[in-house]
Amino acid sequence: MTVDQFFWMLARVAGLGSYAALAVALVTGIALRTAVLDWLGSNRALRSLHQYTTVLWVPLAVVHLAALLLDRTSRIALTAPTSATPSCPRSPGRPPRCSSCSG
Question: What is the DSSP string of 51-68?
Answer without folding.
Answer: HHHHHHHHHHHHHHHHHH
